[in-house]
Amino acid sequence: MMLCWMAGSHCIAFSYSQIAKDSALRDERVREYLHPVRILWQQGTVKNKEQLLKPGIGQADLTNASICVLKNEGSAKSSLLIDFGTELHGGLEIVTGMWSPGNTPRNIRVRFGESASEAMAELHEKGATNDHAIRDFRIQVPWLGKIQVGESGFRFVRIDLLDSAAELHLKEVRAIFTYRDIPYLGSFKSNDERLNGIWQTGAYTVHLNMQDYLWDGIKRDRLVWVGDLHPEVATVNSVFGYNNVVPKSLDLARDVTPLPGWMSGISTYSMWWIILHYDWYMHHGDLAYLKQQQPYLAELVKQIVNKVGPDGKERMDGNRFLDWPSSKDTAAVHAGLQAMTLWSLTTAAKLGEVIGDTETQSIAEEAVGRLRQYVPEMKQSKQAAALLALVDMVPAAVANDQVLSVGGAKNFSTFYGYYMLQAMAKAGNYTGALDVIRDYWGAMLDLGATTFWEDFNLEWLPNAGRIDELVPEGKKDIHGDYGDYCYVGFRHSLCHGWASGPTAWLTEHVLGIKVTAPGCREIVIAPNLGDLDYVEGTFPTPRGVLYVKHTRQPDGKVKTVVRSPKGIKVKRM
């Protein structure tokens, strides 16, 4: 098909087939329209509000028969707070009716919120912000028409009629849900419904962040943060399998970070880029794509090695960062950087061997030898203990007994909690890790979460209200009253992909699925049920979906059933 329009005396033409060849011009996402599930609050004169809970068609009509009416009498304002039932990414569509006098647009205010209280907040109140995505609008809506507004992460929307002595007729108010329409190939089901819900919530959190690129947050942090990608990509591999949003994001991070820069200005984030490429190659086996990274990888490895002293101590510049809760603990950050430097260079040596870059392999291996000469103290930092255990600088059992398991989920974090769980698994403390998952990530679900948050602290729990209700008098607003660093109050993202670690962890350690050869050509099945009676699930591979089921027998032994695609060698441990 050809499209032609006139520019002066010239006809400018192009074909839709030409456009389709340019992926930058084609949105891989879909838009789905969802109606509200409840009206949570109202003020002023509101009639027939139940109309908004009915499925709509997105079309105004002349009957004006089924209409929700907001009426302002004098200077008093009428408003609604609507709930779409779950966290969404997208915007809002408003379909209007006929009011008198006709043809006059109405002025309204629209506020999006990840919590009910955020949708009720004034701009700048308790950190309420329009950063990264506008969530607080003043717009005009047409008489007998339709308008679409917004692109953010939200569950709740408040609508205020701003005009004095006026009516607003609403036929429909629908969420525009924008997402990648991809199947959940991975699954997890056990006799513990709390764990099942946590696995699913982590998967959904990452799914919402698989937008144009793989973001960290759909309201705030709609950016490619490479370190944050690591737990997200682990979840993508466990749930969705191959998706081009991952290499697209890894390539963007590389292309916007010419060396000697650090990705996102953070040395560890460039290290995570190396580790991510190894993990992606192991799952998907795309050697040609991996080889494309060789020039950048080789120079990045030299840059990292140059920051390792003769005594084996890391001397990283840039932003010295692990995660926010550990950022003020300089000793913990140093220990974590030492471990991350070792992890990334050990991984770089493996990548050098795979792609035939013996120089990079040799440079990395030499630095690894120096790094192992110096072991910093982990003290009581769970972040430092986890990383040091994962690279064998500290025995995992020691890290678990002295630091990680102390206080249960106390001092866990949403991002580095994944590595704390990994280190606990390495120490064999599967039951303790399951308890932490239930207590820490499960507590967010208890508070009404449908996605996992940028940060969470068990100390916030006493006297806290739920995020899906207006905060009762005498209760703390867990969204508006808490948060720290860059995420104070309502600026805090309640859908953050880096918090999805339990999804990947449950697949790897409880289902027991471990990829041991590139492209999933070989998989080891080694279940660790902890206190569970049974677990079953699926895992996406390039050759099809793998199925496993583990059932604890009366004698305590575990019976395992495996159905694997052709071309995959399965080893049972």
Automatic annotation (TrEMBL):
Alpha-L-rhamnosidase six-hairpin glycosidase domain location, by residue? Answer: 185-508
Gene Ontology terms: biological process: carbohydrate metabolic process
- Give the coiled coil ranges: none
Top-rank taxon of the source lineage equals: Bacteria
* Domain annotation Alpha-L-rhamnosidase C-terminal: ranges: 512-568
* InterPro entries reported for this sequence: 6-hairpin_glycosidase_sf (IPR008928), 6hp_glycosidase-like_sf (IPR012341), Bac_rhamnosid6H (IPR035396), Bac_rhamnosid_C (IPR035398)
The protein depicted here goes by the name: Alpha-L-rhamnosidase
Organism of origin: Parapedobacter composti
Query: What's the source species' lineage?
Result: Bacteria, Pseudomonadati, Bacteroidota, Sphingobacteriia, Sphingobacteriales
